[in-house]
Write a structure and sequence with these properties.
Blueprint (H helix, E strand, L loop, with lengths): L1 H20 L3 H9 L3 H28 L6 H17 L5 H9 L6 H32 L10 H21 L3 H14 L2 H24 L6 H4 L2 H8 L11 H9 L7 H19 L1 H5 L14
Helix pairs in contact: 1-12, 2-13, 3-4, 3-6, 3-9, 3-13, 4-5, 5-6, 6-8, 6-9, 6-11, 9-13, 11-12, 12-13
């Protein structure tokens, strides 16, 4: 486990060092030093709102699974998990921690289900606008000039996703199927769909705000294409808090939207710093012991 974390830390560090090595450091430094605090504040506010809404989504999922979880408790645990995911390689240590911290004696399964399904719902909410935005961008001329192979890559990803779903549905593993069975019920409820749309909007807005903070105004088409692609790169597990991959993706994609690689890297760094700041309320929440706020209150 420690070796895996060290490898992820090394990969994340190596990627960001490589990105910085090929960028315009003078321009990058000037943009970061002159960052607009108002837009940085908007980014932090957006990310904080996302955490609050994600905690609400987790509470709804847990309640649907029969696991009583007060919102105050889910909010505190979600902030704590977000902070841990920012500083521990891999991006899931915080989720493992919140699973263990809300587990009832002898009922690890439901706690794990609630966390896994909530995270899966969040990933779907991030990926769907990207797929829809890319499809629309490729179909409507006059927007971002994507490389010729983009359409083929998108089709291949769609086929791979369908194949994976078919393989999973065909596996004779009733226990595994029952574990993920509530996922479809969760993602298709109207309140979850509305929450997913709002969170996806705030995610894109937060990164847009970080770009504005360093002096970059992205075109409307980039809001539903470039930004989701940059955010998706943070899902790569070989990193710490998405560092390195996010900046690399932004450096590669921002030129497609009429910006420079240095502008993309600056936006990625500003976004990463805002993510850390937005997770700091976890320190205040940790002052209060979780034992003081039990999941199931005595009658």
């Amino acid at each position: 486990m420690m070796l895996q974390r060290l490898i992820r830390l090394a990969v994340s560090t190596g990627v960001i060092v490589l990105v910085l090595a090929v960028s315009d450091l003078a321009d990058l430094g000037a943009r970061l030093r002159g960052a607009d605090l108002r837009w940085l504040g908007a980014c932090v506010a957006g990310l904080g709102a996302i955490t609050c809404l994600s905690a609400l989504r987790w509470r709804w999922v847990a309640r649907d699974l029969g696991l009583p979880l007060p919102y105050a408790r889910s909010l505190r645990e979600y902030f704590f998990a977000t902070l841990v995911n920012q500083v521990v390689p891999g991006g899931i240590a915080g989720d493992v921690a919140r699973t263990m911290r809300v587990t009832q004696p002898g009922d690890l399964r439901r706690a794990a289900q609630s966390v896994v399904i909530e995270r899966a719902t969040g990933q779907i909410a991030t990926l769907m606008p990207m797929v829809l935005g890319l499809t629309a961008s490729l179909a409507v001329p006059g927007g971002i000039a994507w490389p010729w192979w983009t359409g083929g890559a998108l089709a291949c990803l769609a086929l791979l996703f369908c194949a994976a779903c078919i393989v999973q549905s065909g596996r004779d593993d009733p226990d595994r199927r029952s574990f993920f069975a509530p996922l479809w019920t969760t993602v298709r409820t109207r309140r979850q769909i509305a929450l997913a749309v709002l969170i996806a909007f705030l995610l894109n807005f937060s990164f847009y705000a970080s770009a504005r903070a360093v002096g970059t105004i992205l075109p409307p088409a980039a809001y539903f294409t470039v930004i989701p692609l940059v955010l998706t790169s943070m899902m790569i597990p070989m990193s710490v808090g998405g560092w390195g991959w996010r900046e690399g993706a932004a450096a590669a994609l921002f030129p497609l939207a009429g910006a420079t690689a240095a502008q993309g890297i600056a936006a990625g760094i500003a976004y990463g710093a805002c993510m850390l700041v937005a997770a700091l309320p976890a320190l205040a929440f940790l002052v209060r012991s979780p034992a003081a706020d039990p999941i199931i209150k005595p009658s």
